[in-house]
């Protein structure tokens, strides 16, 4: 039977098996990098020892306010230090972190508070009206608000709620963290709109976040002590897990509340930023920055870009400015990026135009993933011929546990043993994928997912609207914006400005159509609107 017969006594125990969790990165960093700078924001600079102590205070204070393991604690915060602390402090209390998109409308925030059953919500002072209105719409009591003031940004505490620093003062910096007993335990809850009106709750486990963070450090030339600028909102896939990654490598997290070209250039020049991530709209803002907003720097900044396929022209324009861009791809359901356009040595000498075209590919799977390939409608991988289209199918450690309280959608997403992305692509002979179309009706505006169904639903509430269809219209600044095609009822009257304002009252600004076109909609023989024709038309507007 060989030596395997003697494996029976070789069992897991506390000495040789510890559940993977990103919490361990900061627990270690507090000792290894204790006096070094961990977090920077405006005039605030905190060491790793202080960062860890504040996280301990947050975890302790939450527990004293009734947060138990498994409870949900939400945040409505921009990229400020409290949002970074929440990424460690909430899980350190055994709770589940729910970072909410700060650009959502009241009704959606209210739904997320209720569906996730958040017990407490950390809310930026500027976002208090949104949170308070959302709670007022709920049938139940809603979460307790902890106000996170930001006086330096012009948002002093209102006094209406317990302030964040007062909450931390209630906590004990020596309080032991509640580490997961099983790495499959839930770490975070992130809501994504997808293709339906109501968002779905995507559940992350500790194992996936740990492995994505570690795998990113391996492949992204992160090294030790990088300086990372938080451009990606931490409510987007928890900032692609980069905030969890930073303590593993002793990096400095530079928080950026307002994403502008000036702030990006200032952070690079003044703080020595080495890495950042962002949607193509961020790259465009860097390229098109006013001369007065630019700053000189003498190092190459590594950039991950995702959210929409970046145009080759954008990639060609930004690299001479001192940025090395790598396209990555993923979804909320995959903790952020799971593919990267890893550069190959044989491409080193190619002309700039061809180089940009190669970099515009979606790429290949990252090392913590098992299989990312393009499948036909029967679940069979398509030929790697650079032309046959199919759906991107994903399998690996950074795939969600499933959709919270939605077993039907979970089963559908995992059909055939892969996560079905809904994104259409082909695969080159070398395995590199290239997205040609995304889930048909999703509009990605400035890196934000917009559900056309949700926008159409809002438009249909207008008394003059008979039928409508919303598609993506290319936009130089945002990548894409919603464009609405509307048929009015007989005798009905409405103007473009009126309908845009009507939707703006009901949905977040980025979901509002930027153009409204009045015409008869093209339909199939069964009455289904032919959106592909409208997409072609939208490109001409």
Automatic annotation (TrEMBL):
Belongs to the ATP-dependent AMP-binding enzyme family. Keywords: Fatty acid metabolism, Ligase, Lipid metabolism. NCBIfam families: PRK08162.1 (NF006020). It catalyses: 3-(methylsulfanyl)propanoate + ATP + CoA = 3-(methylsulfanyl)propanoyl-CoA + AMP + diphosphate. GO terms for molecular function: ligase activity. It comes from Albidovulum aquaemixtae. CDD domains: ttLC_FACS_AEE21_like (cd12118). This is 3-methylmercaptopropionyl-CoA ligase. InterPro entries: AMP-bd_C, AMP-bd_C_sf, AMP-binding_CS, AMP-dep_synth/lig_dom, ANL_N_sf. It is an enzyme of class 6 (ligase). Residues 32-404 form the AMP-dependent synthetase/ligase domain.
């Amino acid at each position: 039977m060989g030596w395997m017969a003697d494996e029976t006594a070789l069992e897991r125990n506390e000495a040789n098996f510890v559940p993977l969790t990103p919490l361990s990165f900061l627990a270690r960093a507090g000792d290894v990098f204790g006096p070094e700078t961990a977090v920077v924001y405006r005039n605030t600079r905190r060491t790793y020892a202080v960062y860890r102590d504040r996280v301990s205070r947050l975890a302790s204070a939450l527990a004293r306010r009734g947060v138990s393991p498994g409870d949900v604690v939400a945040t409505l915060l921009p990229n400020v230090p409290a949002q970074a602390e929440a990424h460690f402090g909430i899980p350190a209390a055994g709770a589940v972190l729910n970072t909410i998109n700060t650009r959502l409308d009241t009704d959606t925030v209210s739904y997320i508070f209720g569906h996730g059953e958040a017990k407490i919500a950390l809310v930026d002072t500027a976002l208090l009206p949104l949170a308070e209105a959302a709670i007022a719409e709920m049938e139940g009591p809603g979460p307790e608000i902890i106000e996170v003031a930001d006086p330096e940004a012009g948002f002093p505490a209102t006094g209406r709620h317990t302030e964040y620093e007062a909450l931390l003062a209630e906590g004990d910096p020596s309080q032991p963290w509640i580490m997961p007993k099983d790495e499959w335990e839930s770490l975070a809850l992130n809501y994504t709109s997808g293709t339906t009106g109501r968002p779905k709750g995507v559940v992350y486990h500790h194992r996936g976040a740990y492995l994505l963070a570690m795998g990113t450090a391996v492949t992204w030339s992160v090294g030790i002590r990088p300086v990372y600028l938080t451009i990606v909102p931490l409510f987007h896939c928890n900032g692609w897990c980069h905030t969890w990654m930073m303590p593993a490598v002793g990096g400095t997290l530079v928080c950026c509340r307002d994403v502008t070209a000036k702030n990006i250039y200032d952070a690079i020049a003044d703080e020595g930023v080495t890495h950042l991530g962002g949607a193509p709209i961020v790259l465009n803002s860097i390229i098109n920055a006013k001369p007065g907003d630019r700053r000189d720097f003498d190092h190459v900044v590594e950039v991950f870009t995702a959210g929409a396929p970046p145009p080759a022209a954008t990639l060609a324009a930004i690299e001479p400015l001192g940025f090395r861009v790598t396209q990555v791809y993923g979804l909320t359901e995959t903790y952020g990026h799971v593919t990267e356009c890893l550069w190959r040595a044989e491409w080193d000498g190619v002309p700039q135009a061809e180089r940009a075209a190669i970099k515009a590919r979606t790429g290949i799977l990252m090392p913590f993933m098992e299989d990312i390939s393009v499948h036909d409608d029967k679940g069979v991988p398509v030929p790697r011929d650079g032309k046959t289209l199919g759906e991107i199918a994903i399998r690996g450690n950074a795939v969600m546990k499933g959709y919270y309280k939605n077993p039907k959608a979970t089963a559908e997403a995992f059909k055939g043993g892969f996560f079905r992305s809904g994104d259409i692509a082909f695969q080159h002979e070398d395995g590199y994928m290239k997205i040609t179309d995304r889930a048909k009706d999703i509009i990605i505006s400035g890196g934000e997912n917009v559900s056309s169904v949700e926008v159409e639903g809002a438009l249909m509430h207008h008394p003059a609207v008979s039928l409508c269809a919303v598609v993506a219209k290319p936009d130089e600044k945002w990548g894409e914006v919603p464009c609405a095609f509307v048929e009015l009822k007989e005798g009905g009257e409405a103007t473009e400005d009126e309908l845009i304002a009507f939707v703006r009252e009901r949905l977040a600004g980025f979901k509002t159509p930027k153009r409204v076109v009045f015409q008869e909609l093209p339909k199939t023989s069964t009455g289904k609107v032919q959106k592909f024709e409208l997409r072609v038309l939208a490109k001409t507007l």
